Amino acid sequence: MNIAELMTDLAQQGVQVQANQDKLSVRSSKGTLSLETRQKLAQYKAEILSFLREEIDLGSQLFCNQGLSLHTIGRLISGLSDANSAYRPPIVDPHSMAQKLTVTFRPLPGNYNNSQVLKLREELQEKLLSHGVKIEPWETATVDYFYTIKLPKTGLSKQIKTRIVRAGISAVVDVERHPSMTRKAGIFAAETLYQTYSRFVAKNQKLSIAQIAQLATWAEEHAGQRVQDPTNTQVIVLTPLNSEMANPELPYPQKIKIGLNTLIKNFSEIVIGVSDDQLSILNMNLSDSIFPRQEFDRFVVNSLIPKIFVPILPLPLSRFELGEYDPEQSNYAKSLVTLGNKLAPTGLFPAGSKLSQVIRRKSHRDIVNVIMNGRTGVSYGFVCYIEPPQYIGDREISATQWETLAPVQGFSSGEVRQNEAGRWYVKTKIGETEVFRQIPDIWLVSSRSGANKTNLDLHRDVTRIGLKKKLMFQVPKGCDAEFADIKPSYDIYVMVAIALSAALYTPQLVENGAPMIHFHGYPSAQWFLANERCVGVNNPSVPCGTYESGVFNFWASTALRPRPISPSSA
After folding, report:
1. pLDDT tens-digit series, residues 435-460
2. Is pTM, for the whole model, over 0.85?
């Protein structure tokens, strides 16, 4: 039996087969699997498991096989090429991620009795421990915290003592809590006090998260505010599974509304839902995934641990060299607007959500505003247009010429070197052949963060991103990035990673420029034709706006090659 052919046939039918320890996990639409196919899966289970594990092992070696180390890939796409910059080498293996995590479990509220959530909580703690995550007891994961509430214009103040999760804790796991009527009244009073203080005492000046937490007593009862470092400590809330969110037929715009309200209601970065037969995971990406309950290990390793390890954080403007460009002089900016218009009928790019319309309390909006670096809205996916890569001098050199080049500080001299003009070259592989190619300047035009991707305004919504050893961010001429709500997309790393990888490994794809789109969802194998590729579906599901996601996209792009067609399917 040719296992490779069997797996190809199943993929073409839209059947997903994955290894889950010593079991096969098979997903398919109703009526797809014939009795004969079921028998083959049972008969050749051991061979299929071996085949799937070999694919995973080969995938994990792909970076090395392509000739560039993770260190080099990460440094190139991060824009932190300076050897003195605060660069963190990427970690892409979930088991290595787990070793660096510390998680605590918040004590349950009195009389909590949801049996499904309680069972999940117990299993989650055991599973995280088994993969090397450190579980910190609540008593040592929290510290005393004192803050003073000053009543405006009265001179009166009150000091409040509480316990908060200390810095260094990666995540706090909690359950959904429902405030009593008394607590709701207290929240209302605290919110009124906060708004009054913000308006008349702070005079609407921007406050830090710590200052906001000091002024709002509701912080004492909500896990989302009980942390010293809210940018690095994520709150995970366990709830009964929302059947609406788990409905695959639910239109995405409705899913966005439900998802945002679920996260904001619990003031958490991750919400895990559970039922008798399913698990769901939801974060700000809203590309939530549903797992069968029996695939709990795969759920924890492939989805939860990566999301805890790399929180979703936007790139601040301080990471970029800022500038302007004239969109009227850019054919690529105009092409991007046209591309967005053409994508409107697909329904894949719903309009972004204004946080002011979703988050009712000003104190909540102010905290989210600080965490999101001033972004007032969120949208899902991106559209961009890659400009032709810019080279100075020879695009490719010989092995002899490579030997004459100088090392680059911060990189291995076996991978990156520079010529007298300061242009960098990499030694890499195309198949089995070593090649020496110049690292070009990368430029692309992109929809700004929060823009309506299918109705872009040329003079406001289209930014220009560059990678010239460091990251560049250009806004339309005449716009002020600080005051016009023009911020870099969350997906900058993904964009520049794909563009750079294509320039190095498949330059014919981008030599005249190329469109690129990204939308939230999971592909089906049956969508793709023989000359099309789908890669990355088994990667750890890190949030798409993170540095690690950029590395995975660079990796996947290097693997692009024609799909072999068996004689039987030709």
Report:
1. 999 999 999 999 887 788 899 999 98
2. no
Per-residue confidence at 523, pLDDT binned at 50, 70, 90? low
User: Does 151 score more than 70 pLDDT?
Assistant: no
Grade residue 232 by pLDDT with cuts at 50, 70 and 90.
confident
Structure tokens given for 54: 């070999």
Sign of CA dihedral 288, 293, 299, 305: positive
Give SS3 for 316. Answer: coil
The domains of the chain are located at 3-60, 64-90+392-436, 93-311, 317-386+445-558
Q: How far apart are CA 101 and CA 98, in angstroms?
A: 5
Burial grade of 192 (CB within 10 A; 0-12, 13-18, 19 or more): exposed
- Give the distance between the most distant pair of CA atoms in the chain: 85
Q: Which residue has the higher pLDDT, 252 or 473?
A: 473
Token duo for residue 249 = 């037929």
Q: What is the DSSP letter of 223?
A: G
pLDDT reported for residue 284: 78
CATH class of domain segment(s) 3-60: mainly alpha
* Contact partners, residue 352, CB within 8 Å, separation at least 6: 377, 378, 379, 380, 450, 451, 452
Q: What rounded mean pLDDT belongs to the chain?
A: 79
Alpha-carbon span 95 to 557, nearest angstrom = 24
CA-CA-CA-CA dihedral for 296, 302, 304, 308, to nearest 10: 150
Q: How far apart are CA 334 and CA 56, in angstroms?
A: 41
Average pLDDT score over residue span 287-300: 86
What's the CA gap between 548 and 74, in Å, rounded?
Answer: 8
What pLDDT is attached to residue 257?
Answer: 76
Arithmetic mean of pLDDT, 90-119: 92
Question: Reading across the β-sheet that carries 102-105, which strands appear in turn?
Answer: 134-136, 102-105, 171-175, 234-240, 270-274, 278-283, 289-292
Q: What are phi and psi of 527, to 5 degrees?
A: -70, -25
Average pLDDT over residues 474-486: 72
The helix (H) or strand (E) run that includes residue 3 is helix 3-12
SS (H, E, C) 258-296: HHHHHHHHHCCCEEEEECCCEEEEEECCCCCEEEEHHHH
What's the half-sphere exposure (Cβ side, CA atoms, 13 Å) at 31? 0
Q: Which residues contact 544 (CB under 8 A, 6 or more apart)?
A: 285, 287, 490, 491, 494, 518, 520
- Token pair 């909500």 is at which residue? 222
374 versus 257: which is more confidently predicted? 257
How many CA atoms within 13 Å lie on the side-chain side of 216?
A: 28
Token output for 4:
């490779």
Q: Is 371 helix (H, G, I), strand (E, B) or coil?
A: helix
Q: DSSP states of 36-79 as a string?
A: HHHHHHHHTHHHHHHHHHHHHHHHHTHHHHTT--HHHHHHHHHT
The separation between CA 5 and the C-alpha centre of its own chain, rounded to angstroms, equals 33
